[in-house]
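quick one, two chains, predict together pls
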Amino acid sequence: MFKIVKREEMAEGTVILNEIEAPLIANKAKPGQFVILKANEDGERIPLTMADTDAEKGTITIIYMVVGKSTALFKTLQVGDGFQDVIGPLGKPTHLEKLGKVVCVGGGTGVAVLHPITRALKEIGNDVTCIIGARTKDLLILESQMKAASNELKVCTDDGSYGHHGFVTDVLKEALEGGDVKLVVAIGPVPMMKAVANLTRSYDVKTLVSLNPIMIDGTGMCGGCRVTVGGKTKFACVDGPEFDGHQVNFDELMMRLQAYCEEEKHCYEDFCTLQDAT
Amino acid sequence: MTEKKVKKGKAARLAMPEQAPEIRKRNFKEVPTGYTVAMAQEEAARCLQCKKPGCMEGCPVSVDIPGFIGLIAEGDFTGAIRHIWTKNALPAVCGRVCPQESQCEGRCIVGKKGEPVAIGNLERFVADWEREKGTGELPPKAPVTGKKVAVVGSGPSGLTVAGDLIQKGHSVTVLEAFHKPGGVLVYGIPEFRLPKAIVAQEVNFLERLGVNVEVNAVIGRTVSLDELFEQGYEAIYLGVGAGLPRFMNLPGENLIGILSANEYLTRANLMKAYRFPDVDTPIPKGKNVVVLGAGNVAMDSARTAMRLGAENVKIVYRRSREEMPARAAEIHHAEEEGIEFFLLTNPTRFIGNEKGRLTGMECLRMELGEPDDSGRRRPIAIEGSEFHMDTDLVIVAVGSGANPLLTQSTPDMELNKWGYIEADPETGKTTKKGVWAGGDIVTGAATVILAMGAGRKAADSIHQYLTWGW
C-alpha cells in the first residue's frame, strides 16, 4: 500500500492534495512526469501528473479535482489510508532549457502540474512570469507556492472576484506584446490550452502543453491515449505528456475525452447516492 | 520412471465437455469444463508410450509427455504433475492455451491413423487436479547459491525463467509493470479461455517456491537495468513482451469507438470491466462490433464483445480462411458462438457522427494474387467493390510492435531494425553483459509456449553464467 501522509482540501473541497509515500518514484521523478494511481482492487487506473516530489522524505504529491467516481473515491481516503497501487514515474520529463523570458500559464488543477515545471525553469536561470487563473477566487489553488516558484505572478478570475477580471489569455497577450517571450508553458483545461496555443501561434512563440487523455497502462501498450500531433498519431503516455501546443489537435482530444461520459455519469451518481446514504 | 504396459486403445479421442454455445456466448465462465478422473484415465490409455516420442520433439519445453500420461493412466496424478513441473512451471496455462494441434499433438503417432491423444486436455486435467485435490507438496530445490537474478516481466517467458532458476537454487525477483503479475495471461487472454484464478495459482506456486514478485515496477522508468546491477543482481532476464499496438493508419482511426485489442482486452480482463459498474473501469459495449484481424487475439476480442452483449460481431480479414493465423479450435469456438467472418475484406476508412463517435466503416473486397514475402498469397483490392458496414465498435487486432519504453532507456543494448532486442537464439544472451532476453520482445508477437521455450533456454544459460561465469 502507498500511504497518504498529508491531505489537504482546496478550492472549497473540490480539489484535493495528497502527499503519498512512494520512495522509488520520488527518487526518480522529474518535472512533467506522471503516475498512475489505483485506489483498491476494483478501482480504475487514473493518470495524474505530479505536483511535487520529495526524494529525502520519499514522497510524491498529487493534486486532483473531484470529477467522477474514481476521484470521488480518492477523496474518501484520509491520512493513514493509502492507494493500493501507484505506478511511475511515467512519461517524458519536461525539456528544461535556459531561454530568457518564459511565461507559465495555468488554469484549474493544471496549476498543480505547472508548479514543479515553473520552479525548475526558474532554478536554471529563466525569467519566469506566471499567469494563473480560476473561475472564481475560492477555486484558485497554490497562489503562494506559484509566487515563490516564479519571478512574477499574475492572477485572473473569470468573475473578477480576485486579480485581473478575465481570462489568462488577456494577461498573456500583454506579456506577448513585449516581444521578448521565448517560451510559453500552458497547462489546464483543454479549451484553455487551445486558446493559449491559438494566441501564441500568432506571435510565433513556442508553446508547450501537457495533455491528460484517457489512459490505462501508461507504458505504451494500450493506445487509448492517442492524440494527433502535427497530423501524426502519438501516444501521450510515452511520446508525451508534453507536446508542441501549435501542433496538437485539441478538438479531437476534447472529443476523445468524452468517450465514457455516459458510463461515468451513472457510475458517479450511484457512488454519490451510496455515500449520502451511509 | 516405471514403464508400465497400458492399454493401447484404438478408441476415439475423448472430447472435452463444454458449455453449450448459446449459453456460454453470454457468460465469462470457462468454455471447456475439464475431464473427470475416469475420462482422463481413459484418454491416457490411448497413448502408445512410444520409445521415440514425436510429441516431445514437438514441445518447445520438452515435457516428458509419455511419462506423465503413463502416470495418469496408472492413477498417480501427484506423480504426473511432479513429472511435468520438472520442465514446465505453468501446466494449467499450457494445457489451455498452447497450440497443441501444431506442436505435441501434431506429432502424435496415434494421430497418423486416427485422432491424436488429447495431450493438452490431459496436462490441464492433472494441473487442475493438483490445484484442487493435491497435497500442495513442492518439487525439490537445489541448495541455495546466494546469486540474485532479476526477471523483468511476469508473462509466460519471465515466469518460466523464474521457475527454472529458483529450482536451481538462485534467488529470483520478478518485476512487473502492471499491478498484477501474469503479463499477457492476465491482460490478454480472456477469463473464459484462461480463468485468472488459475494464473494467480501458478504465480502463487512460484512464490511458494521462493520467487519474490514485485508489481508496479516499470523497469526503464522506476528503476534502470544498471541500477538493478548496482542493487546486487548478477543477471537480468527481459521478458517484457511486444506490447505496442499496431493501428491501420486509416482516416478516422481516432474516432470514439475504435480501440486496439490491447486496450479492449486489458479493460475486459485485467480491469474486469465486464463487471462495470461493480468495478470502476468502463468498456464500450458495441451493438454492431467489428474486429479487424484473424489471429487468436482477434478471436478473443470478438468472443469478448459477444459476451458483453453485442447484437452481432464480425471478423473482418483481408485474406482467406486458409491464411487465418488463429488456432483452429478458437476459430471453431468463435463460429459456434455466432461470430460472422467477412473474409477477403479490407477497411479503407472509418466514418463518425458529429460527436466523433464511430458509426460505420468503408470496406473493399479483395482477391488473392501471387505469394508475397510472408509466403502467403497477397491480397489485392478489387476495384469499385467499395461497400459500407454499420459499426459502433471496432477492435483493431492486427498485431503489435516492439515497445520502446525499456529499450530506449538502455542505449548500450543492440536492437534490430524493428526495435526488437538482438538476442542469441540458442541462449537468449543480449549484447549487454549479464542481460538475457526472450519472448515477444525478441521474436515479435508469438505464442505463450514459444515464449516459455525461450525462457527455458535463457534460464539454462543464466545458470551456467552464474555457476561458471560464462
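Confidence is low (pLDDT under 50) at residues 1-7 of chain B.
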